[in-house]
Amino acid sequence: MSQPLETVVNETAAHPQWAVIWLHGLGADGHDFAPIVPELLRPHWPAIRFVFPHAPVQPITINNGARMRAWYDILGMDFRSRADKVGVTASVQALDALVEAEIARGIPAERILLAGFSQGGAVILSAALRWTRPVAGLIALSTYLPDLKAAADDRVADGIRPPVFMAHGRQDPVIPLAVAVDTAGVLNTLGFPIEWHEYPMAHAVCAEELQALGDWLDARFATA
After folding, report:
1. Is 91 considered catalytic here?
2. Neighbours of 57 (CB within 10 A)
């Protein structure tokens, strides 16, 4: 992943003051969550640049080697070892480059939010353990933290501890609710302030979730 990622960019107004970098799930692309922007926006919010990158296309072991957009390979069913660690690290580095690009465009790290659904969420949570960048917050939707046992070791001593919005479906067949609950518990133990939400849905996003996320974002913008 040496080449910069291609992105879909949506600026809500001229001269954005904030940026949201939003990573999609397995098999999707940067267009997947772009339609959410109008549903999420509130009239009093500052100008925001939403950046939706496309993951590279690669073979996925668990899907019989079928090639699709993915942030890392999925090696098996066991959540303790299913994520390809090399791939996760490469995606964390690619995400770091996207953050650098926003900083170069004039948006400080303190006004950059990282969002991710499913695989994308796993990448932003992994990045948060390894970075010292003071980003504004993490939005982790229907996701989990790969290798919970290694989380404490992966965490850098002077790393960031931004607030985290986590939401999950009670009937999620892809990432069971218990896996996400365990992730939230570990993150909380490591010092991340967690706002937890769960909904009667599968591996998806619902209207009530977007309303709660909007309220959480309101609080982030109000403190800047």
Report:
1. no
2. 10
Q: What is the pLDDT along the chain (224 residues), one digit of tens a residue?
A: 557 899 999 999 999 999 999 999 999 999 999 999 999 999 999 999 999 999 999 999 999 999 999 999 998 877 777 788 999 999 999 999 999 999 999 999 999 999 999 999 999 999 999 988 899 999 999 999 998 888 877 788 777 799 999 999 999 999 999 999 999 999 999 999 999 999 999 999 999 999 999 999 999 998 76
User: Is 172 one of the catalytic residues?
Assistant: yes
Instruction: Please pick, among 91, 118, 126, 142, the residue that the annotation labels catalytic.
Output: 118
How far is residue 15 from each of residues 27, 49, 85, 138, measured CA to CA in Å?
A: 32, 9, 37, 23
As a whole number of angstroms, the distance between CA 194 and CA 9 comes to: 28
Q: Is the pTM of this model over 0.70?
A: yes
Catalytic residue among 29, 32, 147, 172: 172
Structure tokens at 39: 């549903």
Q: In whole angstroms, what is the distance from residue 140 CA to residue 142 CA?
A: 7
CB distance 80 to 149 below 8 Å: yes
Can 203 be counted among the known catalytic residues?
yes
